[in-house]
Design goal:
Strand order of the largest sheet: 4-1-5-6-13-12-11-8-9
Number of helices: 7
Number of domains: 1
Helix content: 25-40%
Protein name: Glutamine amidotransferase
Oligomer: single chain
Distance between the termini: 13 Å
Order of helices and strands: EEEHEHEHEHEHEHEEEEEH
Largest sheet: 9 strands, mixed
GO molecular function, one term: transferase activity
Number of strands: 13
CATH superfamily: Class I glutamine amidotransferase (GATase) domain
Pfam families: Peptidase_C26
Structural class: alpha/beta
Organism: Acetobacter aceti
InterPro entries: Class_I_gatase-like, Peptidase_C26, PuuD-like
C-alpha cells in the first residue's frame, strides 16, 4: 500500500449487551474484541466502530471505504432466509441484525468492499438469498466440533480453498488452519459461491462473484492464526484503498 496515501476508513460493526447489575454498565452497551480493530490497523486500515442506526445507513456509507460485519454469540433470524425458527436457534439480536443487514445491503449495492466474519458471513449468505443450517450438531451429527474445545487463538481444523476463488488468489495456498466457534453454518450461498470448506464438507467461506470484493469467512481471521488471515485483511484493506471515498484518512 502507498505509504503516502490516506488510510482507508473501515467501518466495523459492534455487538450490544443489554446491561444490568454486575455488568460493565447498568444500561445497554456496545462491545467488540480489540483484535478486530488491531487486525485492520495491522493491514493498513483506519477502523471506526459503527452504531446501530439504520436511519443513518446512507450517511455512514458515504464516509466509509470498506465494511466489516463481525461475529457474536447469537443466531441469524431464520425468517431472513424463509425458515421457521427451531428450538436450536436460541439467541436472536433483532436490533443488531437489522442494523447490520441495512449496512450490508447498502454496501453491496454501492460495491463497497465487504468482509463478513463468522456471523457476518452467515448474514452475507442471507443477503445473497442463501440459507443456513440452524444447528450443525443436530443436522450433521458426524461433523467436526465446530465449537472447538481449545482456545480461540489456536486452530481448530483445516479448510480447503477453491484455487480459482478470490480467497484462493489472496491466500495463494490450497489450505488454511483456522479456528472454529459456530453452531450454525451456511447451507446454500444463494447468489454467492463457495470458496472454502472444512474437512467434513461444512461451508467455511463464500464470496459474491459479481462484486469487486465481497468475502465471508466462517472462522475468526482477526486472531491472525494462519498467514492467510493477515493476507485476507490486507487484500480487503487494499480493495478499500483503491476505492477511497471518505477523504478522512490520515497521512
Amino acid at each position: 500500500m502507498d505509504s503516502f496515501a490516506p488510510m482507508p476508513l473501515i467501518g466495523v460493526t459492534l455487538d450490544q449487551e443489554p446491561g444490568g447489575s454486575g455488568q460493565y454498565s447498568a444500561f445497554p452497551w456496545y462491545a467488540l474484541r480489540a483484535n478486530y480493530m488491531g487486525a485492520v490497523i495491522k493491514a493498513g486500515g483506519l477502523p471506526v466502530a459503527l452504531p446501530y442506526a439504520p436511519c443513518l445507513t446512507g450517511k455512514i456509507l458515504d464516509r466509509l471505504d470498506g465494511l466489516i460485519v463481525t461475529g457474536g454469540a447469537f443466531d441469524i433470524d431464520p425468517a431472513l432466509y424463509g425458515e421457521e425458527r427451531n428450538e436450536t436457534t436460541t439467541t436472536l439480536k433483532p436490533g443488531r441484525t437489522a442494523a447490520e443487514m441495512a449496512l450490508l445491503e447498502a454496501a453491496m449495492k454501492r460495491d463497497i468492499p465487504v468482509l463478513g466474519i463468522c456471523g457476518g458471513m452467515q448474514l452475507l449468505a442471507a443477503a445473497l438469498d442463501g440459507s443456513l443450517i440452524q444447528d450443525i450438531a443436530s443436522e450433521q451429527p458426524t461433523a467436526l466440533p465446530h465449537e472447538q474445545p481449545n482456545p480461540r487463538d489456536q486452530a481448530g481444523h483445516i479448510v480447503s480453498i477453491e484455487p480459482y476463488s478470490l480467497l484462493g488468489q489472496i491466500v495463494g495456498r490450497g489450505t488454511m488452519a483456522v479456528n472454529s466457534s459456530h453452531h450454525q453454518a451456511v447451507r446454500d450461498p444463494g447468489r454467492g459461491r463457495v470458496s472454502a470448506r472444512a474437512e467434513d464438507g461444512i461451508i467455511e467461506a463464500i464470496e459474491d462473484p459479481s462484486a469487486r470484493f465481497c468475502v465471508g469467512v466462517q472462522w475468526h481471521p482477526e486472531f491472525l492464526i494462519d498467514p492467510g488471515d493477515l493476507a485476507l485483511f490486507t487484500a480487503f484493506v487494499e480493495a478499500a484503498q483503491n476505492a477511497t471515498v471518505s477523504g478522512d484518512g490520515v497521512w
